[in-house]
C-alpha cells in the first residue's frame, strides 16, 4: 500500500451464482488457489458491454461463508453502464479475468469506535471489515440504508453475525437515514467507513466537514459508479479539434471521446486522480460530477470535469482538452 | 501462488534499539519491507512504509511535520496512520492516498514491529527479553548487520559446540563437545541445556568469576541453557559457579550468571539485523564491567559474524547443495521446523 501494486490479471471460474434479493446476485468465484482478501478489498473484473471489453470494480463479500473463494455481490443497475448486466448473465463454469484483490479502505485496527455506513449494495465491502472488527473485540456499529429491502442485500446474514450492532433505514418504509444525526451522535474518536451512492457519501462528507471532524477519519470508496442523476445519453464536442461524439448511457465520456479520435490523458478511471480533467466551454444541461477529485467549489463552478466518470444530464457539452 | 519465504510475517520483530528512534526519520528494512520509524510528539513510535504513495520515493528522505511526515519530493503529507492529510496542487484528498502503517510496541529496550496481518498484532506476543531492562540485571549490547540468512544466526546460537573452535581464546573449552546435552521443544520454543561439571573455566568466565570471588582458583560448574522463542529470539542463560556448590540443583549463589540476549530480524532473504545484549546479575552498578562485557562479547560475536557471512557466500557458491546435519544440530533443526510450520500456516498450506 505504498505506491500502486502492479496489475496482475488471472482467470477465475464461476462456481455458483444465486439471487440474494430480486436485484442482487451473489457470484462465487474460484481463484484456483489461496488468495488473501484484505478487509474491505475489491477486485477488478474484465466485463463485456455491448461487445466491448471494459473493466469494473466489485467489492468482495467476505462473510466467511465461502472460504477460499472470491465472492462478489452485484446489483443489476438498469440505468447503469452495463457491467452489472454482464455479471448477472454469468453461469457456473464460465471463466472470468480478474485482478486484485486490492484494499481501498485501509481499515486500521485499534480505534476507539467505528461506524460502518452503507447505502444499498455498498454494504459489500463493509461485511469483511465488520468481521475483522468483531474478531478484534472492537466497538463498532453498522448502519445500512436503502430505498427498499430488495435494494439492501445481506442484511439477514449481517444481523446474525453481528447481533445488536446493525441498524437499518429503509426509506420505502418510512425510516429515513439521518446523516446529520449520525455525525452528531458519533462520539469523539469515531472512525467512519462509508460505501454507497455518491449522493449519500457526499452528504455525509459535508456534515462531517461542517462538524469539524478530522477528514482522515472518514474513509470512503465510490469507484465513480454513481452520481446524483441516472446516466443518460448526451453529446459532447471539442470545437478546437472538430470532434463530436455521442455518449450513450452505458459508456463514459472518456471512452466516447477516445473512440471519436481524441487523444485523452487518464489514469485511475474512477474519478480520483484528476488526470482526465478537461475544461468546460459551455453546457446546455447540468453536469453530474461523479468524481472525488474536484472540490465542491470546483464542481459548483462547472469550469472543469473529470471525463472518466462525470457526465452531462442529457443535452450538449462543449469542452476543450489539454 | 505464494513463493515460500524463509520467515513468518505474523510475528513481532525488533526493528531498532529504543535509543535509535527519535524525532528524526530512521529508514530500516524489516522482513523485506522498507520502513520509516520516528517518534511522535508524545514520544510514541510510528512505523510507516518507507515509500511514498505517489511515486515511491523513500519517505525517510522527507521531514517530520508534527506527528506526521511530509514527502520530500512533491510534498504529500501523511499522518501517523499513514493517511494523506494534504495533497499539493489539488483542493481535495485522493481517498486512496495512504501508506501502510505497521503496529509497533516498545519493550525491553527494542522497538518491535509486526510486518504481517495487523489484526494479529497482540502486544502480549512480544518475546520475553526482560533482562534487558530489569532492575535486577545490568548490561548493554549492539547490532550486527549480517550478510547472511537470519537462520544461519539461529543455527549458530542453538549449537554452542562451535565455541570450542571458533571462540577458543575466550569462552571455548573442550568439554563443550564432550558432555551430553538435552533438547526439548514446544510449539513456539526450543530449549537446549548443557551442564559441564568440575571443569577449568575458560578465560572469559574465569575473569567474570574473579569479579565476585577473586580468591577462587579451582574448578567450576558451567551451564548453558539456550532458549529459542519463535520466530527469532534466543535468550541464553549462561554462567559458572564454584564446582560442587549446588548450581545444577538451583543454588547459584557461589557463581556468576549472565544472559546472552539475541533477537535476529530478517532484513532481506540474505541479510539480517542481529540485535544482541549481555546482561549480568552481579555488580550491577559497575559501568567498567558493563563496558568490558559489551566489548568482550562484541569481539566474540565478530568471530561468528565473519564465519556466518563466509558460510552464506559458500552456500551461494555451491548451488544445488544442502547441509548435512549432525546430532549437535538438533536445536537448530527444531527451530527450522517450527519456522517452516509458521510460514506454511501463513501461506494456507
Ligand atoms: S482518470 Fe483519474 S479521475 Fe479520471
Ligand atoms: S513522490 Fe511523494 S509526493 Fe510525490
Ligand atoms: Fe559464537
Explain what this protein looks like in three dimensions.
The complex is a heterodimer of chains A (322) and B (349). Chain A is built from 7 helices and 18 strands. In chain A, the strands form 4 sheets. Chain A has a 6-stranded antiparallel beta sheet. In chain A, strands 9-8-7-10-11 form a 5-stranded parallel beta sheet, sandwiched between helices. Chain A has a 5-stranded mixed beta sheet with strand order 13-12-18-14-16. Chain A is α/β, with parallel strands linked by helices and 322 residues long. The model of chain A has no long low-confidence stretch (mean pLDDT 93). Chain A folds into 3 domains: 9-103, Translation factors (Elongation Factor Tu (Ef-tu), domain 3); 113-220, Rossmann fold (3-Layer(aba) Sandwich), CATH 3.40.50.80; 234-320, Beta-grasp domain (Ubiquitin-like (UB roll)). Chain B is α+β, with helices and mostly antiparallel strands. In chain B, the strands form 4 sheets. A 7-stranded antiparallel beta sheet of chain B has the order 11-17-16-15-14-13-12, with helices on one face. Chain B has a 4-stranded antiparallel beta sheet with strand order 5-6-7-8, with no helix packed on it. A 3-stranded antiparallel beta sheet of chain B has the order 1-10-9, with no helix packed on it. In chain B, α1 runs antiparallel to α5 (330-347). The interface between A and B is medium-sized, with 30 and 33 residues. Bound molecules: FE2/S2 (inorganic) cluster (2 copies) and fe (ii) ion.
